[in-house]
Amino acid sequence: MNILKDISTIQEITKTRSKTNNAPVRRNIKLMLVYRWLIFLFSTVLCISDTRFSVQGYAILEPLAVVAIYNSFIMVYSLKNVNKYSSSIYYLDMVMQMLLIFFSGGIKSDLYVFLFFIIGYCGFYNKIANTLKTGAACMAMYIFTCVLTNIFYAEGISYTTLIIRSLLFLMVAFAVSRINHEFKKYDEMHRKEFKIARTDKLTGLANRHYLDQRLKEEVDYALNYGTALNVLLFDLDNFKGFNDTYGHASGDKMLVLFSDIIRQCVRMSDIPIRYGGEEFMILIKELDIIIAKSVGDRIRRQLEKQYLYLGQHDEKAKITVSCGVAQFPMHSDNIKQVIEKADQALYHAKDIGKNIVVCYDEIGRNREALENEYLMY
Description:
Largest sheet: 5 strands, mixed
Strand content: 5-15%
Strand order of the largest sheet: 2-3-1-6-7
Helix content: 55-70%
Distance between the termini: 13 Å
Number of strands: 7
Order of helices and strands: HHHHHHHHEHHEEHEEEHEH
Number of helices: 13
């Protein structure tokens, strides 16, 4: 029953966490919607203040109404489909803007400047090829709209101005895409540097530096959502003797082997860390301490079955691991004290014979009692 309850709790927390993770995306969508309505507002002001409005007021108000309805539809769609902001919307935006340009004088309209904003916004969220394609589409639409306006209203057209503005659309598309490309390249380089700084070079697991950064975040999450944070602390048994017997190169291979076992036995949301030397830590979130202990025991049993082949006359060696478990906030509301208690449980596991997992509550019990209790469970 406890396990079923834990699974139900995890499902609820996962749903809540999914909504929380979408928060930055929702903020970006809301900013984009504000941006869209501001463009519409400025377009409306320019249309109404134009000299044509006194003559063709209704003809201009009708496309403004169409654009307002379109914007409202896009707003509802974007808020309901946070991760589905289609690139085709950029083309629809251009069509709506061309509609306003057509009714406000074609090449004589100042509304063309807002097309640069559409290209710019597209450029920051798309690849160079897509942005250039958007710029070319914008240029083609603008030329078509200006020529069509000239045919309908016969007011004359400056082809020099038309060519200059059309080329500007391509130049802006190229400039924005290049800036975005350089920004992404720098961001990727920064991410790689950050990953190197927080990753243990030998095992590929997170290091102590990353642990220090992540602990506060995980503690805050546990407090805010009323969940548990389990600390599992592992130490390879007799590792110094293993190094002395087989050499440090073999010791490194054993550390890598154990790291791989940990990765296979934990969830994506768990945080495995090389704590130092032959010590490893795993932060397991949102699980009961009994289930967390079973994860530690699964890792222990997997290592117990593994042999490391040394390549010298088919020689092979094995090693075991001991583990201590403590939980925040059950054992302490101070995460540093929880780590200390996990360390105490680990030392107790060493004292009673090694190759065993011990929770902090079980300190003082002998090995036989712990194994019997685990078998009953």
